[in-house]
User: Fold these one by one.
Assistant:
Number 1:
Amino acid sequence: MNPYIVLGLLLMAALAVGAWQQKKKALLYEISWGHQIRKTLTSKSFLLQLGGFVAFILTWEVTVKTLGLPWFNRLPGPWECLLEWLSPDPAYGISIYTEDYYTHILYSTYRATTAFVLATLLGVPMGLLMGWSRKFYDYSYPLVELIRPIPPLAWVPLAILILPGDEPAVIFVTFLVAFFVTALNTLLGVESIDESYFRAARCLGADKRRLLFDVVLPGAMPFIFTGLQISMGAAWFSLVAGEMIAAQYGLGFLIWDSYSLIQYPVIVIGMATLGVIGWISSAAVRSVGRKLMAWRERELFGA
Amino acid sequence: MSIRSVGKIYDPEGVHVVALKDCSLEIAAGEFVAIVGPSGCGKSTLLNTIAGFDGLTSGEILLDGEPLATVDKDPSPGPDRVVVFQHGALFPWKTVLENVTYGPVVQGAMTEEEANTRAREMLSRVGLNDIETAYPGQLSSGMQRRVEIIRALINNPKVLLLDEPFRAMDTVTKSASHQYLLELYDATGKTIFFITHDLEEAIFLADKVLVMTTRPGYIKKTLQVNLPRPRQYSMLASEEFLAMKAQLVEAVHEEAVKAFEAGEREMA
């Protein structure tokens, strides 16, 4: 298919998604759908958002292509990258029509998700325990604070030595960063809970175990979810770094490999893909958080 | 309930603070007792020792003749003495109904269905029938406090401990809150231990108003309030009421001055 047709289809899809969201908003404010769309398209904030995109693309095109400034002139222009990305017959072998593109995405997504899930499963209990037991806090906190600042990449050699093969090593370094973020935010969440909730629960007859499930966990939930969003982002950045060093697939590998092979548009395709996936994954964590914390949503925005 | 020469000494990091000293008082079953005194005088410390949040360093507290807290006995809170907190402590993550039924369900005193039925009954008695699925954050402060008092009462406590529950309210909400608290008191006949620094509130609500001294805290003056029940707002302007208020103003003012001077000394 002609890349221009694909571009048109993509734009239409984006508009449809936008319109659908405006419809939800229109229902909320009880005004007509068309009116809400007009209101949004002419709103200052929408125009500024659009302006930001246009300015970014223009600056890129002008510095790289039109002026061809020194240092910048080896970079591909935005148009060139977009056409390559949408081309059925890409010059460098990576576009939305090639299987390889999706293999890289799948590998990266699989690693990030595995690391994120592991980090959540271990990090949340770790943080709860640290906030819950003074002894465990004293025992573990200094150690955590000492290990946490070690950049993920510094772990790669040891991870490769300890774990069988590159794959677990990359997942491990990704996991590590996400784990600390999750654990520390959970700890912060537990510490943020007002003492009177504990007292009230004890008055009403809750034992230690009930306190954990009825006060500590729900009370820490807002911080836990903030932590999970940061952890998701952190997982992606350490994943890409890990993939650049030790992997045969994945977006990080793709970007680094394309650099070595002088296939510059592919670098941009990889980066843009990371941007989109990162945004989607954060949005997913946010929406799960909203579902779990209906009480907070209603508290902040009314019934 | 008897509180016998209770003392409480805090010793955080070597700073010796005597919060309560030889503090004694008797509360009869079904009596509404209000404690007034300058801020920082140990009213809340006393409440915390009764509630079982804090231990005491001398004396003892008896409830129905049974020792509740002594020097050797570790404090433990329980559903026989439920506290309603100054800033409110409804669980924001639970709905109104879940909050109210929490006590009986967690104690295993009622099944969830029994608790739900009972909670609905009690909520409708204070005019809160339509809000059971709401979260506390959606309610006004007056409604929140009403729900919290119901959450305490559903446990059928021997004594209800109220720690300045109406402190942060505007005048209108406050007087409406007085109204339903009095109605609940008249209906249930619960023993109530009420902390406040609002003298009018204390006289209007209570059978007995106790004035507490500034640190070290003990009961300096006991004022028997002989206004008939049910209490009416017109009583606020009666001569009897004003005379009692004058007595309290004098007693509390003395303590406030002492507290202020002590504060000055600490600063210097």
Number 2:
Amino acid sequence: MEKLIETTNLTYFYRSGTKDEVKALDKVNMNVFQGEILAITGQNGSGKSTLARHFNALLAPGHGDILVKGLSTGNKDNIPEIRKVIGMVFQNPDNQLVSSIVEEDIAFGPENLGLPQAEIIERVDWALHTLNLEDLRNEPPHNLSEGQKQQVAIAGVLAMKPECIVLDEPTAHLDPRGRREVLESAIRLNREEGITIVLLTHFMNEVVHCDRMIVMENGSVKMEGSPGVIFRKSEEIKTAGLDFPVASQIAEGLRREGFNIEPGIIKTEELLESLCQLKSSI
Amino acid sequence: MELTKNITLGVYLPGKSFIHNLDPRTKIIAATIIIILLLLSRSYAAFAVSALFIGSLMVLSGIPTGYALRGLKPMLPVLVIMWIFQLFLFKEPGATIYFHWWIFEATEAGLHMGNLIILRVLFLFTVTTFLTLTTSVVSLTDGLESLLKPLRMIGLPSQELVMTLVIALRFVLILAEELEKIIKAQMARGVAFDRGNFIQKTRKIFPVFLPLFIGAFKRAEELIVAMDARSYTGGRGRTKMKTLHMGRVDLTAAAGMTAYSGLLIYIIIFTKPMI
Amino acid sequence: MSIEVINLSHSYKAGTPFEKQVLFDINLSIGEGEFVGIIGPTMSGKTTLAQHFNALYIPRRGKVLIDGLDTRDKQADLVTIRHRVGYVFQNPDYQLFAPTVGEDIAFGPLNQKLSRQEAERRVHEAMAQVGLDYKTLYNRDIFALSGGQKRRAAIAGVLTCRPKVLVLDDITAGLDPRGREEILAVIRDLHHHQNITTIFISNSMDEIATMADRIIVMDRGRIIMDGLTRQVFARFKELQAIGLELPEVTVLVNKLRSAGFNLPAEVLDVREALSLITAALKEMEANR
């Protein structure tokens, strides 16, 4: 698979050069591959968000390097191109919506790109349609639920037609339904539009739907791999301060009871299937 | 505890009336003309004509008059104090004196001056509120941006200024809601905002602004990052999704405005001022 | 301490063109020592209802009685009511206003004109109750706390007023799994050891299922269910219909039920599900 983002020994300090210098990233080596859904998880303060802000050059590396499609983010001339490739959605939707009307907000990015009027309208229509927001087109954001606002924020990024969307804890302040809908949107954008997704999250039931996961701890990458493999490393998961997905907790418990259930189950559907097989074999 | 209830300035009341359908530029220009004429008006006749005109616009727009004027309520005490000040302190040689009290004397000139100032404030407030009640923030700023465009040539960053206004207006409601939450959170811990006299209440409200400002700065910072991430680099090179178009309704409005302005200018020139 | 709500209705922006009714004829009573969960989709009126419990809203239609005291009563001492019914908000930044942790937590007792000594004693006690270390954190800058610590400081600040009722309004939003678990443990502990009546507002069925004995479900300003946690969960179809997400484990168990497993409908947590599934499988093996 082709590498979309590649970091080598990426290191970053907050308040660099002062006496309260804090090392937020410590020699991070990781990749984001074209077309994948990557989850980045870890406790608050583990460096997830700092890492994500390097992806579209909101932060420039202290040491080390980060390449987006081969372009170094440290070089200022590359920034406009990098921001066209990598879109970003943040935690609090209220702090990223600019306009007082939904469609105007979605047009904000394309307007910044200096696109012709006809194309802006076309892209806004497309983004509204793709995220099922057509009915909210003329609403002011303060009439929307938090989940809907976050969908609008995603549409605003989508209208810029990025190759990759980085979502920085987009569901942290949403109710479970809003959370599910945002996750579904992200998966749909990946499967149907081929957009690479990087999802930062605390919720393990979101992580299990991703192709790959990275666990951060104290500014460095502790684990990397497919969720089915990572969640088997129970000790490491606990020290990283994470949960286990519900299905894997039950599957592990049943295995311990001596039932014949294959290892690496993380999704409800997988467990369901496995249990039905077990039932028919009894 | 509802703070946002009495805020009418900057609130938009959607509708489909003649006034709502006007091009925002028409409304901005009309409001500007009315305000200039009001500042030049010095006779009761002029204010009466303006009241009639604005009143009929209000009826035309379908905005409940009571609601439009609600925002005046918190200003009333200040207005009364201003009126009393003018009544006693404005002096003009030879003016009729109504009564003496200690070193103060209420004169006819003072009465008219007080009335004039109150009328101006009332009318200015009503006109601007009426403008925002019938024009959405978005079309208001689009209109402003279009009207200010020529000023770019003399170096005024009009697009950036309007963008600042857009964001400020979006955040007014968010901050008002936030203020309400902070006050409630502190009331819940035993700060009695709803007890005590005016001064005591004001003093208690002070510590509330600290978390509000910290919150506002945090929001601003996040918003800047988010705008950056969406490739905002200022007004240059930006295009717009919507362009404004003037239509028949705007012509009708122009005719109405011309008639009103003509009449008012006539009154301003030929009637005797109150002061 | 009991809370009684009688025919309560409430509208936002009453008397303006934006008027919107958010509570419709609510009747409710919460007895001493209960642990009640209030759940409902966003905008269902949970917070507005709960802010009537500590007189942040005074009813216009209907009434609220706190230990028999009508909050509409002009003579009612609202500050005392607010000390008795402690309210912890979703965002701790609104509720914390002194520069250091210790000063902030001491605000309530000092505001009540208690002696400095008594205030300090209560701060010490409250910090211990929420698991904040007195020695290292007393002089810490409020802004230097983590999200989880801030929430615990906010709870401690309420506890120093010795509340009989604690209202917790969606206090786990934005926390990571460890922070969430810690704060929930503090709440359980307070309820069991201090016998504080607890009203826990959340939009997550997962959390409510493991915390509350009784659940009140709200939808568009009305109470649509009020009963023991298990009874409410047994009506999972209705809960899903109003847009609530069932806990993953409840969904799993119900799917297993329809696949022919012998399991009850209202399973609330993973441990319970595990033992029930184990039992069901063993039973099947025995009947082979």
Number 3:
Amino acid sequence: MNYPRPIRKKTKKSRLVTLILLFVFVGLAVFSGKVGEVSKNILNSVALPFWEAKVSTADRSSYLGALFRSRISQADEIKRLKEELLLAQLNLKGLEFIAEENRNLKTLLNREDLQDTVSASVLARPPQIPYDTFIIDIGKRHGLAGGEKVFFENVLIGVVEEVFNKNSKVRILSSSGVETGAFIERVNLPVVAVGRGGGNFEINLPQESEVEIGDFLVVPGSPQKLLGQIEEIEQTQAGAFKRVLLRFPINLSEIRWVAVEMLADN
Amino acid sequence: MNKKALLRIVVGLVALLSVFVLPWWFSFILGILFLFLFEFYIEAVLFAWMMDTLYSNQSWFLGAYLLTMSMVAIFVLAEFLKKRIVYYD
């Protein structure tokens, strides 16, 4: 019969000491604000060079694929991209004209845009990290204080939650349980979108609300920013409410940079 | 320093690097693997705590330290199982 080998008393004692030290440290880091803040700052300082190296390596390695593709397929892709670029440039001309008209109208109504934004590179994003969070490469040194809104193009993505020396943590608005006030643009209906994680939101509306799949949700402000697009509506015959499911109009895992709106005091 | 201790240090550095640059699930699985490969691998709990500290955005305790709590539970389970598996005698 086999018996478990008895652990020596000295090993048992050292393991107990290790366990106690670890739990005291983790306990202090979790429950003591000061220790927690110091440990977060140290961890972020240590992690930052690795995140930056990872982003830099990922950018460079995207060119490696070209080594293994035939010249013909590359020439075809170049042709296709040139055509897309031409169309995009034509569309851009039209948009520039509309934007200029919009600016002129706002000036007439004394409602110029007062946004001051800073670009930031995304160092870590879902699904690499287990929470609905972005890590961006600007922090206290760049004038951030916490609470700034974060955008990708004209989509409101999140809010700066924690600021460190050279980087910050952004809470994505679709984080589970986070509530965001918005309105359905087509019918001008104010709603509260509740995050469900992974870029998804849900809204509970009365059955008689006139919403359709494809409707956009916008966040009030000047200018208005997009929050999401309705993808599905779940309703039952007997229920008084219907559940509207929506998501960001972009894929969060593909975002490489964001714009951070600086607060007026910064 | 014996070979086992050196291996443990190297493995610890690899796990630490994976916390910063690899997907979280990869680091988590690596931590569980090392729990069974090494004796009393408490470093796995430390790495889970680091991931929660760096990336969590939840305000309530259990939500903010989900990975740490999970790894503590797996650590306790692993130590319990290792005492009862013949392979570890």
